[in-house]
From TrEMBL:
GO terms for molecular function: FMN binding; oxidoreductase activity, acting on the CH-NH group of donors, NAD or NADP as acceptor. The lineage of its organism: Bacteria, Pseudomonadati, Thermodesulfobacteriota, Desulfuromonadia, Geobacterales. Keywords: Flavoprotein. InterPro entries: Flavin_Rdtase-like_dom, Flavoredoxin, Split_barrel_FMN-bd. SMART domains: Flavin_Reduct. Belongs to the flavoredoxin family. This is Flavin reductase family protein. It comes from Geomonas terrae.
């Protein structure tokens, strides 16, 4: 029998994404976001949720753009820092030893050192309780050549993304591949 845990955010895992934006003064900023994911395939889009009090909230609203920067496990310290420090008081790129790169496609910076970057134009916002969900149309995905597979697509075992567990506030490395999607389940078809 399962035990009720009540209403809580125990869904797991969640992504560890660093959202890049420029504030009103043009300073590059990062905010670590765990509330996010793919929300549409056509148009290709992702969603990230932020509280209005976050420094990145006004930046995304003003610039109508953001980037999703996916760190490898080597950057877990930088990812945590970007989630606990405020861009109002700190230059998160400098403090974390990261390099901001100005996107040619959207009005937002991305992280040079991270293996996978998604550049987004803001499509719409949805107010949900204490959060605002930012829905961004994917304009481009950039990947380091070293993390691509034989087909030229990002390989999770090479990207080595980290995930987050809201339950215990833990970061975890992505595990091994355990099956092929749209294939392994065929064994149960009759």
């Amino acid at each position: 029998m399962k035990k009720s845990l009540g209403k809580a955010t125990h869904a797991m895992p969640t992504p560890v994404w660093l959202v890049g934006s420029y504030d009103s003064e043009g300073k590059a900023n990062l905010a670590t976001v765990a509330w996010g994911g793919v929300c549409s395939s056509d148009p290709a889009a992702v969603t990230v949720s932020l509280r209005k009090a976050r420094h990145s909230y006004d930046a995304i609203m003003e610039r109508q753009a953001f980037t999703v920067n996916i760190p490898s496990r080597d950057f877990v310290v930088a990812a945590d820092y970007a989630g606990i420090a405020s861009g109002k008081n700190a230059d998160k790129f400098a403090a974390a030893g990261l390099t901001p790169v100005k996107s040619d496609l959207v009005d937002a910076p991305y992280v040079a050192e991270f293996p996978l970057v998604i550049e987004c134009r803001l499509l719409q916002t949805v107010e949900i309780g204490v959060h605002t969900q930012f829905i961004g149309e994917i304009i481009d995905v950039k990947a380091d050549a070293s993390v691509l597979d034989e087909a030229g697509l990002p390989d999770p075992t090479k990207v080595q993304p980290i995930v987050y567990s809201p339950t215990n506030r833990g970061y975890y490395a992505l595990g091994e591949k355990v099956g092929q999607g749209f294939d392994i389940g065929k064994q149960l078809m009759k």
